[in-house]
């Protein structure tokens, strides 16, 4: 679900930004930016829409084993956090802070999904897409954190400092601007179901 659902949703965001940065020229056909945006939309639909992928993440990938697989992934993330904490760099410390908060938010959601799917399935599945996005953000941030650690080590050896510093900056940017959203996603999933299911069917 993460590879298909999360990645294709991100393709929409990236291609939308591609149109935006071109301004009016992005909207017309000469640049080709609009074509990429239109083409990206189908990626979130075929081979299982994002919502179907998210439902699979909730049901077969999390609830079925009581969240054990998800928690095992979180444990691996925590090991990377320890490596970041041991680093003396300000960038590593900043990424550590955001990664830790994202992992804790993820674990709160895993406990909610594992504990409430049978008793309150509508409440759990109401947050399935935000859960998919939270999980995707966490895993992507984790991999970028790992790349930061490698880049710092290689830069210290004098290997392509400009490229390695760009890797560090990219990881820091992701942590500051994407991972930082994780606690809010957690709140909407764990505490926001009532407003999703609150309207009667007749209201639609």
TrEMBL record:
InterPro entries: Acyl-CoA_dh-like_C_dom, AcylCo_DH-like_C, AcylCo_DH/oxidase_C, Diverse_Acyl-CoA_DH. Pfam families: Acyl-CoA_dh_1, Acyl-CoA_dh_C. The keyword Oxidoreductase applies. Residues 2-57 form the Acyl-CoA dehydrogenase/oxidase C-terminal domain. The keyword Oxidoreductase applies. GO terms for molecular function: oxidoreductase activity, acting on the CH-CH group of donors. Its cofactor is FAD. Keywords: Flavoprotein, Oxidoreductase. SUPFAM superfamilies: Acyl-CoA dehydrogenase C-terminal domain-like. Residues 74-198 form the Acetyl-CoA dehydrogenase-like C-terminal domain. Gene3D superfamilies: Butyryl-CoA Dehydrogenase, subunit A, domain 3. This is Acyl-CoA dehydrogenase.
């Amino acid at each position: 679900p993460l590879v298909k659902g999360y990645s294709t949703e991100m393709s929409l965001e990236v291609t939308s930004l591609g149109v935006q940065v071109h301004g009016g020229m992005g909207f017309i056909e000469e640049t080709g930016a609009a074509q990429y945006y239109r083409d990206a939309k189908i990626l979130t639909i075929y081979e299982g829409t994002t919502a179907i992928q998210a439902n699979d993440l909730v049901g077969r990938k999390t609830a079925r084993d009581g969240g054990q697989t998800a928690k095992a992934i979180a444990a691996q993330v925590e090991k990377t956090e320890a490596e970041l904490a041991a680093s003396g760099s300000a960038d590593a410390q900043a990424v550590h802070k955001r990664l830790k908060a994202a992992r804790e938010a993820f674990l709160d959601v895993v406990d909610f999904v594992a504990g409430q799917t049978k008793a309150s399935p509508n409440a759990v599945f109401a947050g399935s897409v935000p859960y998919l996005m939270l999980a995707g953000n966490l895993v992507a941030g984790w991999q970028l954190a790992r790349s930061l650690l490698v880049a710092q080590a290689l830069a210290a050896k004098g290997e392509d400092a400009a490229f390695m510093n760009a890797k560090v900056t990219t990881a820091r940017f992701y942590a500051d601007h994407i991972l930082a959203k994780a606690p809010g996603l957690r709140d909407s999933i764990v505490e926001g179901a009532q407003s999703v299911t609150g309207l009667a069917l007749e209201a639609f």
